[in-house]
Structure formats: structure tokens, C-alpha cells
Amino acid sequence: MEKKNKLYSFEFTSKIPMLFKKNITISLFILFIFCFTTLSIFIFHHPILPLDIRISLLIQKYHANWLDKVMLGISFFGEIPYSLLSVLVVAAIFYWKKFKREALFITFILFSGLVILGIKNIINRPRPTGFHVRLVEVFRFQSYPSGHVLSYFLFFGFLIILMSTLKQITKGTRIVINSISAFLLIMIAPSRIYLGAHWFTDTLGGMLLGLICLFPMCYFYFKKENN
């Protein structure tokens, strides 16, 4: 009887860290939804913000032709049709390497395009204009939230998670993919502001929405593994 109680106590204690992590994850998910909803409502009523203009002018203070090309290169993977091709090519590589389930989840990222277009049409925030900032290129669609930032956080964020999970992939490959993904995640928001494509709050909204979309992807990906 005592042995049985000790076993039960051990099992209960071992579940505490798992439950703790699960509660933190759910709390973060709810927090991101709250922040994104609040920001979206605020932007809907205040499309032009002095803070956004100041941040754009600060980031664009130094500019050069070579820097324009670098920033455009950073944004390359978010441009249509290259964003679609990137997802399909990476999914095909995972499928070819026998990671069929991972390939399927990567393909699901394509549906984020429908989410971003729907929210853009609802908020209907205009893009920054030459009156306020320097425009490197003229961009389509509405401004909020940034589709590039959303897709980068979802796509490259999920790649980083896969690299920390799939130990069958060589260490060198994981380091390279993580390094490139982390660099693009860090630089995508500043690049969009530098190019005059988005305001700071556009990129913030894209980041929050990208994380919100990443949560259920990871949940369903790891659910079968835990079962």
C-alpha cells in the first residue's frame, strides 16, 4: 500500500511541471489575443499615430542604395508569389526527407494568407504615404497588420521549433536553419518600416497575430506526440 502511494505521489509530482508549462502557454496565448484585439481596435479608430511617424523617421534616418537592396532582400520571402513557393518548396523538402507530418503542417501555413487578408479588409488602414515617410517601393493592399511579419513569425518560428524537435536532422543543418530563421525574424519588422511599407504598429500587430497562429499549430503538432 505504501509503495502504491509513493508511486501515485511520484506520478502526481511529475505532472506538476507539465501542468505549469501548459498554464503558462494558455495564459500567453490569451494575452496575445487580448493585446492584438486591443491594438486592432485602437488602430481602427486612430490610423495615423505620431509615434509611428517618429519611429519610421528614426529608422529611415540613414538610408542608402545598398541598404535598400538589403532590406528588400530580407522581405523577399514575404512577397507573393515567392512566399507561396517558399512554403511549398520547404514542405516538399521535408516530405522528401520522410518528414511527412511536418510537411503537412508547413503547408497549413498557406492558410494564414486568408486570415491576414480578412483582417486587413476589416481594419482598412492605409499604407504610409510619401507625405510622411520615404517610400522605397509602392505596396499593395492595406497596411494593418503586416502580412510579412505574420508569415515570418509563423513560418520561420515553426522551423525553429522543428529544428529543436527533430534530432534526426544533423546538428550543422539545424544551426544553419536556426541562424537564418532567427536573423529574418529579428530583421523583418525593421525592414518593413525602413522600406516605408508599414508603420511600427503594423509590424507589432503582425508579430502578435503570427504568434497567435503559431500556438494552435504547435498544439496540434505536439498533441499526437504527447498522446
Notes on the structure:
- The structure is a single chain.
- The two termini are 29 Å apart.
- The chain has helices at residues 2-45, 50-59, 65-74, 82-96, 100-108, 112-123, 147-165, 171-194, 200-226.
- It is globular.
- The chain has nine helices and no strands.
- Helix content is 75%, strand content 0%.
- The protein is mainly α and 227 residues long.
Strand fraction equals under 5%
Tell me the overall shape. globular
Q: Into which percent range does the helicity of residues fall?
A: over 70%
The termini sit apart by 29 Å
User: How confident is the prediction overall: mean pLDDT?
Assistant: 88
Give the structural class.
Answer: mainly alpha
Radius of gyration of CA atoms, rounded to a whole number: 21 Å
Largest sheet: none
The number of helical runs is 9
The tally of strands reads 0
Low confidence ranges:
2-16
Order of helices and strands: HHHHHHHHH
Summarize the structure.
The chain has 227 residues and is mainly α. The chain is built from 9 helices and no strands.
What is the topological layout?
Layout: H1 2-45, H2 50-59, H3 65-74, H4 82-96, H5 100-108, H6 112-123, H7 147-165, H8 171-194, H9 200-226
Helix pairs in contact: 1-9, 3-8, 4-5, 7-8, 7-9, 8-9
